[in-house]
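Hi U.,

Before I forget, here's the chain from the pilot set. I'm dumping it here mostly so it's searchable later in email.
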Amino acid sequence: MEERASIWGRSEDKIFETALVKYAQGTPNRWAKIADLLPLKTALQVETHYHILMSDVADIEAGLIPLPDYTESADKKKNKIKEARKPATQWTAGEHKRFLEGLNKYGKGDWKSIARQCVKTRSATQVASHAQKYFIHLDKDVKNKKRSSIYDVSLE
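Structure:
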């Protein structure tokens, strides 16, 4: 009875499954060879684990145990990720000014340094996104604009 109740970890199961392929049915001393790969398991525990596995497989194939619906759980995880996203917040004039100072100091492309040293309230990804929008704004024709923008603020 004690042999049946042994607890198997995921790493032990992986070693066991690999060993089942390596030491196929009919291999002499199969259970002892597999047990040699699992220092905390005896040959009897390995054999018992195999019979439990075969019983579980038979139950699954007979339709006694329903297969898990992995697509449903994956969809739930996707929804949780979408729900956890924070709404975008506008950049303040102060943040933009610090962004421009960082741009002068660290140059175009070093968004990580600008975020860490100058605009500490924003991540490097947010700084890069802001920079992309800023440079697009600089290239636009300013004459045809309807309203002012945070990107109009300069250090001068």
